[in-house]
Design a protein that fits this description.
The chain contains ten helices and eleven strands. The chain has helices spanning 12-16, 22-32, 76-87, 97-105, 129-133, 195-201, 214-219, 224-229, 239-242, 244-259, and strands spanning 3-7, 37-41, 58-61, 91-95, 109-112, 118-127, 144-150, 152-156, 162-166, 174-179, 182-187. The strands form two sheets. It has a nine-stranded mixed sheet with strand order 2-1-3-4-11-10-9-6-7, sandwiched between helices. Strands 5-8 form a two-stranded antiparallel sheet. Helix 3 (76-87) links the parallel strand 3 and strand 4.
């Protein structure tokens, strides 16, 4: 049984009104790998306890709905937490904000996508040559689709990072970095979220122009016609398929823990 720590990347104020970014991970991980032991920590609430990362097998940095980017002063505590996770040499996963956070911490750059928000599903995702060989992307083929919602994106990869997948909206949709004790896998899209999770976000005022997608997003996890209208290939939103990369990471963490 792996011990996984989820670093909650929304603020306590957001958590108090239902904005718990760790929730999607908890539901998906326990739905697919029910023996996993999960704990949650919140750097925006208070500095993390010393030695916390030494007590777990792997660390997840969640997405976030904060207004600031991962290179902003407000995100300093979150950056410090990721630096501590890397220093502990634990496998680290990042979704969306977590990917952008890793890019900044490791020396890359992020910014708002010139194409605006990518909301609903990230479509027509394509593997790079490195991605086709990487264990994170095992089970994927060009043209896949995964739930997503983001404004910012990685605009310059850190030196030493490996680009694994991209699409027309954001060239960096998945990357890994395994160098100098750092062991990071991450995606811009959200394999931990169901389509209905994303549909729920469309009530926010910033997504007013996207609300026409809500009925299909709320149904797409169980309705193939709704998924097809969103552009998803057949079966793309079934748990084991849409969470493919995250489940590959969990299996990697488990194997690495057993080897140690």
């Amino acid at each position: 049984m792996s011990k996984i720590l989820i670093v909650e990347s929304n603020t306590p104020e957001m958590n108090a009104v239902g904005g718990v970014a760790a929730g999607g991970f908890i539901r998906t991980i326990l739905g697919a790998r029910p023996a996993t032991e999960i704990s949650v920590a919140s750097p925006y609430g208070a500095p993390l306890r010393r030695g916390l990362f030494d007590e777990v097998d792997g660390v997840i940095f969640s997405g976030s709905a904060v207004a600031w980017a991962t290179d902003a002063p407000e995100a300093e505590g979150l950056r410090n937490a990721m630096e501590e996770a890397f220093a502990a040499e634990r496998p680290v996963w990042g979704s969306c904000n977590g990917l952008q956070l890793a890019a900044v911490v490791l020396g890359g750059a992020v910014g708002a996508s010139p194409k605006g928000h990518e909301v609903g599903l990230a479509l027509d995702l394509a593997l790079t040559e490195a991605g086709a060989r990487h264990p994170m992307m095992a089970g994927r083929a060009d043209g896949f689709a995964v739930p997503c919602v983001h404004r910012d994106e990685v605009q310059r990869l850190p030196e030493g990072a490996v680009l694994l997948a991209g699409n027309a909206h954001s060239p960096v949709q998945a990357m890994s970095y395994q160098k100098g004790g750092v062991d990071f896998w991450g995606t811009q899209y959200h394999p931990e979220l169901a389509a209905s999770d994303v549909g729920g976000y469309l009530e926010r005022s910033i997504f007013e122009q996207k609300r026409h997608m809500k009925p299909d997003l709320m149904a797409a996890d169980f309705d193939g016609d709704a998924a097809a209208r969103l552009g998803a290939p057949v079966g793309a939103l079934l748990l084991d398929t849409r969470a493919c990369e995250l489940l590959n990471w969990l299996d990697y963490v488990a194997a690495k823990s057993e080897a140690n």
